[in-house]
Model the fold of this input.
Amino acid sequence: MKESKNFETQAVRIQSERSSFREHSAPLYLTSSFVFESADQARALFADEEEGNIYTRFSNPNNSEFIEKLCTLEGAEDGFATSSGMAAMFISMASLLRAGDHVLASRSVFGSTHQILNTLFPRFNISHSYADVDRPETWEALIQPNTKMIFVETPSNPALDIIDLEWLGKLVAKHNLILNVDNCFATPYLQNPIQWGAHLVTHSATKFIDGQGRVIGGAVVGSKELIKEVRFFARHTGPSMSPFNAWVLSKSLETLAVRMEKHCANAFELAKRLEGHPAIAYVKYPFLTSHPQYRLAQKQMRLGGALVTFELKAGLTGGQQFLNSLKMLSHTANLGDTRTIATHPASTTHSKLKEEERLAVGITPGLIRVSVGLEHLDDILADIHQAIEKI
Ligand SMILES: Cc1ncc(COP(=O)(O)O)c(C=O)c1O
Done:
């Protein structure tokens, strides 16, 4: 079904080759290795003269189906499925960077990505600088002679800031850099960074791609040339996805479009209904006209996403009281689930930062992040309203 240009058809119909059992749904290939038909085939496979499976750390039909589908949906030439989103972030950088290289990253990236840049890479003499999402005019001056890659998340977590991918695509082309975009919040249904000039797109498939809070997984997709390096690194260091998770995630991609439509419809409506609430200082959602980068979001995203944030006037303690008063919304360290999840970054994920560091990445004291699920909107709203009243 590669000939169809339609997202929904590609997501449903791209499938591994049917076996002699004539199965309709793709089978699960739980095997560590694959049998060689002859000594010469074994030699040819190891010599890369023939394409085929050798060992599941390198490739497996379930992983190939998942990655082929994701590549098609992202407009990428090739890809590699990883055991987690962080494995994807790590190998997308570590496989291409060398000692002495420099990475320019947006300041608002996921916490573990910060740890890779701040704590782990300096051990290998790979340095970085952070650029502010709301000050694009400062980025070019931060590029150094040894800068090799720009790494960004858009929308960012949890501030929901939007970076102009077209502008960034032009900037990396001018300076001959690799643009690596963590597309976890938007998913390929809402945004395709490669269309704007990104060379690599990284995913935590744990979030909306699974969408049901079941498995951990990730992926790196991009140009053939770069993925060759990523695959070599992965083959010899071992962060590959389990075939079981690849099977789950390939099935999940079949329903991504319908799920994202509903997630985004619920989120947009929730954002509109919460805006102006007397206990809330502001609501942030990419498709609200009050979002500082509303026009940009409209340009590069199909819909506004499933994440909504709002600032409780009652501040830090108000945020904690709010979470303690929720009856239905889940309080858990995840997002992108059918179940609506609320978190309070200032007292949890970002509590170790100083207040000024939190403010620099848009985390105000009473900020609540809601990953809007697929429950009926009335029930999501009712729970949020009753919890606000208890503050
Ligand atoms: C934007 C973003 N990138 C990367 C990750 C890491 O993914 P994983 O937990 O699958 O390793 C997460 C979430 O955990 C995330 O929200």
The pocket of pyridoxal-5'-phosphate is lined by residues 84-86, 89, 110, 112, 153, 157, 182, 184-185, 204, 206, 216, 218 (CB under 6 Å).
